[in-house]
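Re-running the complex after MR caught last week's input typo. The corrected sequence lines follow. Everything else is unchanged.
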Amino acid sequence: MSAGIEPRRFTDSPLGRRNPTVKLALLFAVSLALLFVFDPVTPAALYVLALTAVAASARIPARVLLLSHIPFVGFGLGLLVVNALSRPGTTVWEVAGLGVTTEGLSVGASLGLRSMVIGVLSIGFVASTDGVALMASLHQHARLGVRMTYAVLAGYRMLQEMPAEWQTIRSAHAVRAPLHPNGRPRGGMRSFGRSAFALLVVSLRRGERMAQSLESRGLGLGPRTTWRPVPLGRADGWLAVAVLLAIALVFAASAAMGFWEGGGSLFTGHLDT
Amino acid sequence: MAAGDPPTGSAARSGTAARLLPPTVPAVELADVSVEFPRRAGPVLRRVDLRLEPGEQLMVFGPSGAGKSTLLQLINGVIPHAVAAQLSGTVRVRGTDTLDTAVAELSRSVGVLVQDPSSAVCLPDVEQELALPLENRAVDPAAISGRIDAALRAVHAGGLRRRKTSELSGGEGQRVALAASLIAEPAVLLLDEPTSMLDAGGIASVREAIGRAVDAYGPAVVLVEHRMDEYAGRRGLAALPGRAVVLGGDGEILLDGPTAEVLTEAATELQARGRWLPLETELRAVFGCPGGLGAEAVRGGLKRLAGVQDGPAQDGPAQGGPAHPLHAPAGPQAHRDVPALQAVGLAVGRTTAGRRRRRRRSSAPATADPGTLLTDIDLAVRPGEIVALLGANGTGKTSLLLTLAGLLEPAAGQVMGARPGMVFQNPEHQFVAGTVRGELGYGLGPGSEPVVEQLLRQHRLEHLADQNPFRLSGGEKRRLSVAAMLAHPRPALLADEPCFGLDRRAAIAMMESFRQAAAAGRAILFSTHDLRTAATVAHRAVVVADGTVIADGPVFDVLARSVVMARAGLALPALLEWLLETFETPDRMRAVLAGLDAAVPRGGEERGA
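Corrected-run output:
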C-alpha cells in the first residue's frame, strides 16, 4: 500500500542501535559548528570523516549511499556557483560578463562542502533511524509532549497511506474522464486539481476522526507509562563524545595548519568595495 | 459466544473492579438530552432519557440521520468537547457528567469503535496501536505484551501483531480497531457499525469477540449496527443484545425494551422505513406471523410469493405470481454472445498501471509470486447480464475489478472489450465537481443538459441538484456515484461493493438501477459480500478464492454448491438455504426474493422512469 514513500532503513547496524535523540542532537551540533567555518578545507576534511563513519557504521549499501547524495550535491553545486559568480573580490576568470572571484570560489566551496557534510550525516541519520522510534525517543528524552508525539505519528500513518489514496482517487477519476479515441482516459492539469481537492477533503476528514480516535484511547491522560522504551545507554554517550571530539580535533588541526577561516572572510569582499 | 477459555488474569482483575462499584450507579445515564447541530434544521436528538446498567447490552435502531452516531458521540464526550453542537440535558458516564470531563478522561470508562477503520487505526504498527490505550492508562509495561496478545486473540487476529497498519485490509483493520477498543477493558463499550467492512466470517468473529469481551470484562455495550440480519447470523434474534431502543426520524426514542419485543412491535414500522431487519422480524413484518422460517404460515406465504400453491409442487416457471413490479431477470439465452468485457488468462497483481516494479513485499497469501493476487482468470460479461463477484475479505475482488477497468496493469493475460465504467467503494473518491448537477454532467461534453436532467430524475437526485456532492448523506453519495458513472455510454459497468453502507430501501433502489441498466444492454459486474442481494439481482455468480476463480455459473447453482461456499469462506444466509432446499427452479427462488423486496415500501419517493 505504501509504495515508495518510505526510505529504506538499515536500523540493524551499529549506528542504527544508537539513540535517535542523541543522533539528532549530534546532527544539530555539527550543523551548528559548521556555521563558523568558511574555508573549504575544514568541511572537506569533515566530509571525508563523516562519509567514512557513516559508511562504516550504518551498513548502507554503497549504491544507496551514493544515490542519496544527489540532492545534496546539487544543492552544494548551486551554492558554489552562486557564490563564485556573485561574491566581490579578486576576479580570476570571466564568464559571460560575470566575474568568478577567488573569495567567491573559496566561500562557495566551503558552503557547498558544508551542505555535503550535513547531507551525509542526514543520510546516515535517516537511514539508520526508525521514524517511530525517533518520535518515541523525542518524547522520552527530549520532553516532546505526548500529544505532539502521537499527532506526528498519526500524521506519519496518514502520509504512508496517501500515495495509495492518491492512486485510488486518480483511478476513480480516470474511470470517469472522457476517453481519447484510443480508448484511454484524458488527463490534464485540471483533473490533477480535482484529484488534489478530493484528497484534501478525504484527508482532512480522516485527520479529524483520527484525532478523535486518539483522544478516545486516552491520549493526554497522565501519568502514563511507556511500553518498550527506546534505550539510552553508555554507548550513546561514547558516540556523542567521539563525534564532538572529532570535530574539535579537525577544527584545531585546521586552525593550526592555517586553513581555518571564520566568518570574517565573508565580509572582506564587501570591505574592499 | 464464549469460546470456553478462561479469562486472562488482567481481565479477571478489572472485572472485579467493575463489580466493586455500587450497583446503583448506572453505566450510562442520559436525562432529557437534546442535541442540535449548527446548519441543520431541528434537533438530531430530542428529549432523550436513557439509563444503561453496568453490563447491560443495548442495540440502537433507527433510520439514517436519526442520531444513532450522535448518541454514541454523546457518551464518549466527543459531543460537546470536539464537535460543535448545542446540548441540553445531562449525560453521565458512571456518575460523571460528560460536560465537565474531557474525552481522554472519559476514555477511562469508555471504549469506542468507530465506523471507518482507516481512521480508527492511528499508528504505524499494530503493536503500538494496541499498546497506546494501555500506556495512556499507565499500565505496567511488563503486562502490556501479554494483553496485546490476549486482545488480538479475542478478535481472532493473533497473526496480525507484527504487521504494519498500512498493510492491513479493511477487515483486518476493523479487527485491530476492535481489539484496541477492548484492550483497556472499558466499563462501557460503544460500537458504531463494527462489521461494516467484513464478510460473513469476519462478522461472526467480531460478534464472537464482542461476546467474549462481555463475558470476560462485563462492559455495558451500546451497539449501532444497520445490517442486523447479518450481525444476528444463524442464531437470529438470540444473537442480538438483550435490549433495544428505536430512535424515530425526529430524534425521539420511540420504543425501548427487550430486543425481541421491540422488534416485534416495531417490525412493520422498521420495515416501512426500509431498514435491514433480522430475517425473523422481516418475515413477521411481511406475513404478520412470528416464528420465522420455522412457522408453517410463513413458509406458506413464501411459497405463495414463489407462485407455488399449497399442495403438490408444480413444474415449470412461476406463472402470474405475486403482484410485485419486478420482473424475474431474463435467462442467459437472452444475452448476446459477444462479451462486453472479457478476461483471458488474466493474472491480477497489486502493481499500479504505469508503475510496474515494486520493491516492498506484499502479503498476498497462497500464491507463488508474492505480488500476484489472482491467476488464470477467464471471465466474460455479456450485454444485459448482471454478474455478482463473491469472495471473502482480502481475496482480491477489488484488484480484479480495477484490472478489468484498466486501472491496474494485468500481471499476465489480457482484458478485452471497450473500457468499462467503475463505481468505487468510497464514493467520495470519485467526486470531481462542486454540484450534483456538475457531477453528472462531468465529461459528457456540450449539449448534455437533457441527459443530466433525466439522470437526476431517474436516480431521485433532483432535490439535491445544486448541493455539493461531499455534503450528501452516505446513500445519496452512492446513488450519485452510480448515476454519474451510468451517464457515460460504456458497455460495461463494474461496481465495488455498491450496497455497502446503504439501508435496505437504498440497496433495493440501487439494484433496480442495475436492472434498468442491464435491460438497456449494459453488462454489469459487481462485488458484494451480501449473498442475498447477489441472489436477488444477479444472473451469474463468480466466486473468487485461493488465488483464482473457483466457480462461475448461474447464481443459484453456485450458491447451492456447498463445497464452493465452504472453500470461499462464504456462509449462506438461512433464507437462501431454505429457498435452495424448497424450490426447484431459480425463477421461483428469485420470485420470493423479489417479492420480499417489493414488500419494502418506497417511502413516497417517485420511482424512476
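None of the earlier attempt is carried over here. The first strand of chain B starts at residue 28 and ends at 36. Chain B has two domains: 9-287, 333-354+367-578.
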